[in-house]
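ok, trying the design again with the full structure, not the truncated one.
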């Protein structure tokens, strides 16, 4: 912006809706709606390889914290899910993608609520692993608020040093 020029939109840039110009008219657009439109177009580029992105993007969903470790034969993924029952968790492996979804149930306070910072509602976690995996032998356990998922690497992806003759 040139020195001395000033912004015509006097509203806060973080809270004011974006404006766009189409065929000579000014319209207001909702950033969330624009984002959904773009992600739907983007997901179409993968010919159905990815799940429907509009089902994943949910204003209520949160992403739990995780650790991922790689060993020679498997990936170990630990996901923090305190207060969540195993019946409320779904684990899936498709190709090289691990997806964990579920919900932390909302409980009504028994007394006067003074503070609330525990995230409740639906959650979504997804990771794409760098090597082919064996989905038939994936193991998952939920202990002490941590989901432990062991994803073995496919036998066909073992590292091999090639001798040059």
């Amino acid at each position: 912006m040139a020195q001395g020029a000033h912004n015509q939109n006097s509203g806060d840039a973080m809270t004011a809706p974006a404006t766009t110009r189409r065929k000579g008219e000014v319209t207001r657009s909702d950033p969330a709606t624009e984002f959904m439109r773009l992600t739907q177009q983007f997901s179409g580029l993968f010919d159905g390889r990815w799940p429907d992105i509009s089902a994943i993007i949910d204003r209520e969903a949160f992403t739990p914290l995780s650790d991922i470790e790689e060993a020679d034969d498997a990936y170990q993924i630990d996901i923090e899910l305190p207060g969540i029952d195993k019946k409320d968790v779904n684990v899936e492996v498709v190709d090289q993608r691990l997806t964990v979804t579920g919900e932390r149930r909302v409980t009504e306070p028994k007394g006067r609520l003074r503070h609330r910072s525990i995230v409740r509602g639906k959650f979504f976690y997804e990771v794409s692993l760098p090597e082919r995996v064996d989905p038939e032998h994936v193991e998952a356990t939920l202990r002490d608020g941590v989901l432990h998922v062991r994803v073995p690497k496919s036998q066909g992806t073992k590292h091999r040093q090639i001798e040059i003759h």
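Keeping the full-length input from now on. Residues 17-57 form one domain.
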